[in-house]
Write a sequence for this structure.
């Protein structure tokens, strides 16, 4: 199993490689990829070696081949199906983003408690009431959930998700979650990211 930071960097490399491919570039050196990924060449080479891929000293990495190699490691052989819990502004943005940018991920359904949202579609994704949660997760063998819900109900919903078979959670709710062993949770803290950028922006100005 790869370390979390390595997986994050590989995902970043792949997005860069996708853009390079779109621009017509066929090869890239480790120092070029490192500069675009805000890393260093030695780190790029170590990460690529961990997935069993190598480049050429004369030409660097072949863009399509490296992109494929990263996909072979990161992607589920089957399509990764997910659900979004909570269809406020953030939940709707997540549904729209995945629909536009990720061919290997799909949002199978969204869940909300608002009667005005239930039964409707957002970007082609149907919205259900929370009473359908366990039934749909089981029927479609869904393993990933994206949380964009209020803090007071988050743990209760997480308990239901884990009991239904969810093993991966993207957490936009700014509280720690208690999950059983075998369930991976990634906290996405937009406020912390903003504060970090603001801090370093001030430092650069100084």
């Amino acid at each position: 199993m790869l370390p979390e930071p390595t997986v994050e960097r590989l995902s970043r490399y792949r997005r860069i490689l996708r853009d390079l491919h779109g621009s017509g570039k066929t090869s890239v050196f480790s120092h070029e990829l490192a500069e675009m990924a805000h890393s260093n060449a030695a780190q790029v080479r170590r990460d690529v070696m961990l997935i069993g891929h190598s480049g050429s000293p004369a030409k660097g990495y072949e863009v399509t081949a490296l992109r494929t190699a990263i996909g072979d490691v990161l992607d589920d052989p089957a399509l990764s199906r997910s659900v979004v819990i909570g269809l406020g502004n953030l939940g709707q943005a997540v549904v729209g983003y995945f629909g536009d940018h990720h061919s290997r991920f799909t949002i199978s359904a969204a869940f909300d408690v608002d009667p005005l949202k239930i039964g409707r579609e957002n970007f082609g994704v149907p919205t259900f009431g929370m009473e359908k949660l366990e039934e749909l997760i089981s029927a479609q063998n869904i393993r990933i959930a994206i949380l964009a819900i209020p803090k007071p109900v988050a743990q209760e919903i997480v308990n239901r998700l884990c009991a239904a078979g969810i093993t991966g959670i993207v957490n936009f709710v700014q509280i720690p979650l208690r999950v059983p062993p075998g369930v991976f949770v990634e906290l996405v803290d937009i406020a912390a990211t903003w504060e970090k950028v603001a801090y370093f922006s001030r430092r650069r100005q100084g």
Summary: The first strand starts at residue 27 and ends at 28. The two ends are 42 Å apart (CA to CA).
